[in-house]
From TrEMBL:
This is Universal stress protein. It comes from Arthrobacter terricola. Residues 2-138 form the UspA domain. Belongs to the universal stress protein A family. SUPFAM superfamilies: Adenine nucleotide alpha hydrolases-like (SSF52402). InterPro entries: Rossmann-like_a/b/a_fold, Universal_stress_UspA, USP_A, UspA. It holds the Pfam family Usp.
């Protein structure tokens, strides 16, 4: 295949399970892995301490989450990249998959039962609108 597998993460344990599944699939397919964290607010905050000044944003926090997951998954054999993408999670994953020409999007099945199923879920949004194949990983049980 030698394509790209995109996985969405949010720092949760269930998202990490989806990321581990995505890693296994990317490895088996000979693809690279793109770890994506969505953020839907463009807030920034300026923090000053002494003579130092930092600008913190939601994008920075999302990118840290994606980097953390990418670092945990790294094994030296698989090409892994990461990014923060603006938008609601499902929409951000779809846009990133389109942008990089992904062959597969991996999402977890969290919130696909009960009230979450009625209100919608990331997996539901991605499954109905993705530009490529979608793999829904069972993440609600360890």
């Amino acid at each position: 295949m030698s394509g790209i597998v995109v996985v969405g993460v949010d720092g949760s344990e269930t998202a990490m399970r989806a990321a581990e599944t995505a890693k296994e699939l990317a490895t088996a397919l000979g693809a690279s892995l793109r770890v994506v964290t969505a953020f839907d607010k463009k807030r920034t905050e300026v923090v000053e301490s002494g003579g130092d000044k930092w600008i913190l944003s939601d994008a920075d926090e999302a990118e840290k989450i994606a980097l953390d997951v990418a670092t945990k998954l790294a094994d030296g054999k698989l090409g892994i990249s990461y990014t923060a993408a603006f938008g609601k999670p499902g929409e951000a994953l779809i846009q990133e998959a389109e942008r990089v020409g992904a062959d597969l999007i991996v999402v977890g099945n969290r919130r696909m039962q009960g009230i979450g199923r009625v209100l919608g879920s990331v997996a539901n949004t991605v499954a109905h609108n993705a530009p490529c194949d979608v793999y829904i990983a069972k993440t609600d049980e360890p």
